[in-house]
Amino acid sequence: MQEDQEEDNHHEEHFDDHQPWYKGPIKIMMGLFLILILVLWLVPYYGIKQNPEPNYLPTIADLNIPEMVIPEVSSGKITAYVQVNQEIKQIADKIVTLSCQETHKVCNAKAMFYFVQKNFNYLNDPLAFEYYKTPQESLKSDSGDCDDSSILLSSLLQSIGLQTRFVFVPGHVYVQVKLPEAISAYKTEDNWINLDGTCRGCEFGEIHYSYADSKKSYSG
Question: What would the pLDDT profile of 98-114 be if each residue is shown by its tens digit?
Answer without folding.
Answer: 999 888 999 999 999 99
